[in-house]
Structure formats: structure tokens, C-alpha cells
Amino acid sequence: MDTGTMRRCDLAIVGGGMVGLSLAAALQGLPLDVVVIEPVLPESPDQPSFDERTTALSNGSRRILEGIGVWPAVDRDATPILGIHVSDRGRFGTARLTAAEQGVPALGHTLTNRLLGAALRDACARGGRTTLLCPASVESVDPTDQTIALQVRGAWQGRLEARLVVAADGAQSLVRRELGIGAEVSDYRQVAVIASLKPGRAHSHVAYERFTPDGPIAVLPLAGGRCTAVWTLEPAAAQRAMAMDDGDFMAALQDAFGFRLGRLSEPGRRFAYPLSLTRAERQAGPRAVMIGNAAQGLHPVAGQGFNLGLRDVAVLAEVLADELATAGSTFDPGHAALLERFERWREEDRRHVIGFTDGLVRLFSSKLPVIGLARDVGMVLFDLMTPAKHAFARVTMGLTGRGARLARGLPL
Ligand SMILES: Cc1cc2nc3c(=O)[nH]c(=O)nc-3n(C[C@H](O)[C@H](O)[C@H](O)COP(=O)(O)OP(=O)(O)OC[C@H]3O[C@@H](n4cnc5c(N)ncnc54)[C@H](O)[C@@H]3O)c2cc1C
User: Fold this and answer.
1) Three-class SS of the chain
2) Ligand 1 pocket test: which of 46, 49, 109 has the largest number of ligand atoms within 8 Å of its C-beta?
């Protein structure tokens, strides 16, 4: 077989999606030769990361994006979230959280993935330190003592030798499999159907989370007065929702969501995402680390997946920057002690957010009446209890765990 050419670099990022490109952008200020390998062109309708979804970004994520110079390009298009409203269909409990009571200008922002992707690509191009191999994909991984070799196929093909490989290749990570690192996968047997829509009443920058017996519905505020709905359904119901015409789809969503936002109309194109929890057993391996969905793929119910992945980015960038500053000419980005430091640092935040998200899915999926009552009481108490609200707000605003410098608004 023709193995093509050979190239060396300091750091190879496998996967140029939301998290992989964020890391490339974060590393622009460091004297490192970084190569990103991504199989799907950014403008392709099949780009799996920078697609039509909207991401709810925590305040911590905003600070990281500011620190890596990406926020100014998206600031105009990002919509502030000033309130969160949680309810349970057919039950009495509701809970509200507002930016004003938390003493912050916004609880977070929404932004479409495509716009974030364009801004990340521009930041990498401006920095001039990243080579993007696209379309190209990694086919095998072979770690040795001093380097880790990737076999790459596509627009560039050959053997790429890096001192550190960062797996940012999503929940089905090939790098993780090739390194023999196990992952616990639990299929929620749910599918998220997403579509943008026009609300009959102004969204007033409030994000709604409504739990229904068929699954949760999130309706997030967007720029231009529109909203985006993320409707979680069992697979057969999701298939039916995808097959409906626009009128029937709006009527079904309206019935499940209610009239808090008036009459819902003008749905955009629908997309479906099967949902599972994927948790890699380790975040570090030989000359390799896993970040974003390659390390943990979460249910979108709490909007935490990318936010958590971006904190992986901030910590990894900091660990590398500090090592560069102290090790000088002996700097080795794939050094085992450095990778262990990264893994230990990420442990608590990761465990916390995975547990919080998985717990929320299970709590609100339960059809047991006693659990339903406990949810109602919990939500009413939550609405009254400032410390509980504050703790919840800290998770949703991305303030859990020991924060990296970028997440605290400090330079790398
Ligand atoms: C419906 C929905 C709504 C969501 N909403 C939110 C939200 O509001 N807030 C939030 O924080 N998170 C949210 N998330 C989660 C968020 O989208 C993910 O956490 C995020 O996309 C993870 O990015 P990633 O780059 O790690 O992985 P991915 O987005 O999966 O990207 C992986 C990249 O790797 C590439 N790749 C794959 N295989 C290879 C290979 N062999 N070689 C090279 N490259 C490869 C792929 O082409 C892709 O570009 C949501 C998820 C869903 C499904």
C-alpha cells in the first residue's frame, strides 16, 4: 500500500470540529507546530460539528472564547440568555433562574454552530501556526517512546509523526479505540429533533426547558426574534416527528410545549440526533489525550457538552503553556507527567458535569408518580431557595471545578 509522504509536528489534533478547532485557536500564541486533521469540509452540509444546531454557551465559555480572540467575531450574533424557565408538563412545579438575581449581565449566550466554526477557522488562519489537513482522516494510530504516528488519508496522505496527539474526533473516537482505551456507553434510547421556529410572543431572552412524559423540550432564544427547539423523543416518535409536514410538526410541538411563547410557526429544517452517554475510561494515554466528545459525549438536556469540552481545551492549553515556560529546550508536549497533570485537573469537573447531566435525564425520564411528585416539590423548593439556585447557576454558567486561567478571564 502507498503510505504517501511523511511529516513531523509538535501536536496533531485529530478532528477539526467545535472542540478540536477551539484548541487550535487557543494554541496560536505558543511556539508550537500544530496540525489539525478533519475529514469534512467546513462548507459541506454534512459537516457533523459545525451544523445548524445552536449551542448554549456558558459565561465561562464566553470568557474562554474571549481569551482566545474568537468572541469579537461572534459577539454581534450571540444572543444573551437573561432567564431560564423549567417546567414539567401536566404538573404544578416550575423553577426560574434570572441573570438579575444571580448578579450577572447574562446567564449565557446562544450561538449557531456554523457561525462559531467560521470564527474559529478565521482565528486559526490569522494566527498562522496551524496547518489544516482537510478533507483528510486518520486511519490508524501507533504510539512509540518518542513520538506517536498517525496514518492519514485524504487531501494529504502519509505518515504524520507528532509528539502529542489530541483526540477531538467525537464520541465514536477512532483514536480512543486505536489506543485501546475503553469507553462506557449508555444508550438513552432517545433522539433529539431540532428545528428553528418563530414564537408568537417575544422570547425576551428566556430559555425554556419543559419536561414532558415523552421527553424534555428546550426552546432557546435566537437573534432576530426566532427560537430553536430541541425536542427529545423516543426513537419511533422522533421518526414520526421527522416525517410530519411543517403544519403537523408545529401542532405536535405546540401541544407538548404549550403556549408560553404564543403560537409557534415558520419551522426551519429539522435534524435528528440519537442520544447516548459516552464516557472514556481515561482522558490520557500514551502520548495522547482525549478532549470534548472523544472523552465524554453527553445528553444535550443541560447544554453542557461543548462547555465542558471547552474547559478541556482551556486546561490543556494552560498545562502546555506552563510546561513550555519552565522546560525550555527540553519541552516535550507528550511527556507522561504532563498528560497525567491534565487528566487529574479535569477529573472533578468532568465527574460533576457528567453526573449532573445523566442524573437530570434519569430524574425527568421517570414515569413513577412518586418521582413526579418529588420533582414538583423539588422545583418549587428550588424556586424559593437562593443557595440551591446559586449552585445550579454555577453549573450552567460553567463555574464548577478549579478554573483554568482562560476560564477566569486571564491570558494564557
Ligand atoms: C442536539 C444537540 C444540542 C446540543 N446543544 C448543546 C448546547 O447547547 N451546549 C453545549 O455545550 N453543548 C451542546 N451539545 C453538545 C455539543 O454539540 C458537543 O459537545 C460538541 O459538538 C462536541 O464537539 P467535538 O469537537 O468534541 O466533537 P464533534 O462535534 O463530534 O466533532 C468531531 C470532529 O471529528 C471529526 N472526525 C471524526 N473522525 C475522524 C477521524 N478519523 N479523523 C479525523 N477527524 C475525524 C469529525 O468530522 C468532526 O468534525 C449539543 C449536542 C446535540 C446533539
Assistant:
1) CCCCEEEEEEEEEECCCHHHHHHHHHCCCCCCCEEEECCCCCCCCCCCCCCCCEEEEEHHHHHHHHHCCCHHHHCCCCEEECEEEEEECCCCCEEEEEHHHHCCCCCEEEEEHHHHHHHHHHHHHHHCCEEEECCEEEEEEEECCCCEEEEEEECCCEEEEEEEEEECCCCCCHHHHHCCCCEEEEEEEEEEEEEEEECCCCCCCEEEEEEECCEEEEEEECHHHCEEEEEEECHHHHHHHHHCCHHHHHHHHHHHHCCCCCCCECCCCCEEEEEEEEEECCCEECCEEECHHHCEECCHHHCCHHHHHHHHHHHHHHHHHHHHHHHHHHCCCCCHHHHHHHHHHHHHHHHHHHHHHHHHHHHHHCCCHHHHHHHHHHHHHHHHCHHHHHHHHHHHCCCCCCCCCHHHCCCC
2) 49
